[in-house]
Amino acid sequence: MIAYPDVESIDNFQEYAAAKWFTDNYTDGVVIAPGETSKINNAETGVIWIHIDRVDAGKGNLPAAFTDEATLSALRSFVENGGCLYLSKQATQLLAKLGRTDIDVNIYGDGNGGEGFDNWNVNAYLGYWQENPDNQGDKFPEQIYDHTGHAIYKDVTTNEDFAWPTFPMLGTGDPTTSLWREDHNCMWDLNAYTYTAEGANTVEKFENQYNASVIGTWGHVQDYAVAGIVEFFPATVAETAAEADQAQPGTIIANGLAACEWSPRTGVNAYDANLRKLTSNTLDYLNNKRGQNTLVDMNVDNSQLPVRLFTLDGTEVDGSNLVPGIYISRQGDKTRKFIVK
């Protein structure tokens, strides 16, 4: 979805690079331009990608094409009826405008940036501090959240910049060679919010409060301070087969990490393939989420069927060894969501 009549008219080089990659690689994809709200429909579309990345935009100042009520209403309806969204860079601010959260992003950058020699990575291994030898205090291994196996990271290469695995997205790969990075983060400092939900740390509190999973942070972060890539699960879960026959809300992935920059002004990004793979994985993952809330086996005796447990991203787990978090149990045509503390 773009704020221009067509891809070739995009005058923002960051957004052009993303849109051009999309149209070159998804020939069956549809570009939605301003005012084309009729294209925001569930009959033909499984996932919509909105990418906004602008210098000096100002926090909260999204392009008018994305904030008029007709567009917001169409996007809300799309998600409420099962459509999925991928919001990247400054587009993560749409979560609050769509009513999915009651908080705004509080880590925000839109400056010119500058040259740098280090790699900018994504860390999907949250809480490494709990096993870091330098941590001489109490350790809580159950508070390590390893999302490196999430579908969005499939075949994305890792590096050895840190003691934990990270996915490089932006850098030359040569400590003597620089490139220009704009440093446009648009995400969440989890320590800055007040939570009503319980949890062992700010990640768990954030996840429990917003039915979400923090699946990526800054590469160097060992604790629970920053949410860079967040998967927001459907706001409701079907409790009965009758409810599941109706369209269920869709999933939203928000990626506000500056590391995911499409077009450095100078220098060559050695990890360009990682960014493209992460993006295609995310779009494909969300597209495949359509229809997963539907329940079957409507005329069965549930009490005679086994109970199966799943994480919110659909991974089946062993119920005898659950770590704290949110789970879905299924027994025949009955589902329920519960929290392990």
DSSP, total strands: 18
Provide the domain count: 1
Helical content stands at: 10-25%
CATH architecture: 3-Layer(aba) Sandwich
Note the quaternary state here: single chain
Kindly report the spatial arrangement of strands forming the biggest sheet. Answer: 1-2-14-13-11-5-8
Taking the sheet with the most strands, its summary is: 7 strands, mixed
- Low-confidence stretches at least 5 residues in length (pLDDT < 50)? 291-302
Report Rg: 20 Å
Q: State the distance separating the first and last CA atoms.
A: 39 Å
Q: How large a portion of the residues is in β-strands, by DSSP E?
A: 15-25%
Shape: globular
Instruction: Output mean pLDDT.
Output: 88
Q: What are the secondary-structure elements, in order, as H or E?
A: HEHHEHEEEEEEEEHEEEHEHEEEE
Which fold name fills CATH's third level, the topology?
Rossmann fold
Count of helical segments?
7
Query: Which structural class is indicated by helix and strand composition?
Result: alpha+beta
- CATH class annotation: Alpha Beta
Question: What does it look like?
Answer:
The protein has 341 residues and is α+β, with helices and mostly antiparallel strands. The chain has a single domain (7-295), classed as 3-Layer(aba) Sandwich (Rossmann fold), CATH 3.40.50. The protein is built from seven helices and 18 strands. It has helices at residues 13-25, 64-67, 69-80, 94-97, 202-210, 241-244, 272-289; strands at 47-52, 84-89, 107-108, 114-116, 120-123, 125-126, 145-146, 167-170, 179-181, 186-189, 212-218, 226-227, 229-232, 252-255, 308-311, 316-317, 325-331, 334-340. The strands form five sheets. The protein has a seven-stranded mixed β-sheet, sandwiched between helices. Strands 16-15-17-18 form a four-stranded antiparallel β-sheet. Strand 17 (325-331) and strand 18 form a beta hairpin. The longest helix is centred in the last third of the chain and has 18 residues, at 272-289.
